[in-house]
Amino acid sequence: MSSLASIEGLFYLAATIAIVASLKVVTGKNTVHALLYLVISLLAVAVCFYLMGAPFAAGLEVIVYAGAILVLFVFAVMMFGLGIDETHNAPQSRGLSLWVGPVFLGLLLLIELIFVIGNSDLSLQLNNQIVDSKQVGMLLYGPYLLAVEISSFLLLAGLVAGYHYAKPESRGGRL
Amino acid sequence: MTEIPLTHVLILSSLLFIIGFVGVVVRKNTLFMLMSLEVMLNAVGVAFIGAGSVWQEADGQIMFMLVLTLAAAEIAVGLALLIRMQRRYRTLNIDVLNQMKG
Hints:
The structure holds two protein chains of two kinds.
Chain A: H1 7-27, H2 31-51, H3 55-80, H4 100-118, H5 120-128, H6 133-140, H7 145-166
Helix pairs in contact in A: 1-2, 1-4, 2-3, 2-4
Chain B: H1 6-26, H2 30-54, H3 59-89
Helix pairs in contact in B: 1-2, 2-3
């Protein structure tokens, strides 16, 4: 076992943040606060990916999960109307204390990332074990071409189904 | 090769998966169930990336990308169904869906 200032120690820190944030997601009462913690959980997992030598996957995690899917969640919550779900069971707004948890965990992750990038020893260690996007792309459009095609069909099916299901009945959206 | 042992990655992955699974089983709010589903899919991604980094192969990242695609499609359909449910029953409680008519 090594100290906290190694790749291993930083990984354990990020893993702990991911687990704590996921627990807060599952036990949360307020939808928007749970979403905030979900963002933190995804970012912590992205840092884990980066420390495992998969920076491309880490970028995808941030862009697609934290960027696109979470925005979809926020839009859906806005459409539901906040007063209708479990928000009225949550304690009254206490100012700072509601968002200080996610912000603290996020700052911890940011400090960790800056530490890894700034520390030349750790960066060198990480560079030795990287699986870069070039290898991923070569495999993706070689042996896995059929899987890419199938996943594009899956996304198209998701788009069509989402459009059809969310359409109001008054405008012809009958199931 | 890598610094992080595979067993620890798999422990993290299974912990996240269990947390998500308990969330899906315990929560009654459908939106929280979808969020727990996201946590579960994410845990699977951790396992794939960890295995890929141990063997220094890109296949793990490719499987992660496929899981990512699956998650995006699943969330699109799930949230659309939730919007439908909210319109029809005025609630997100999963228990109102226990009666189906053909």
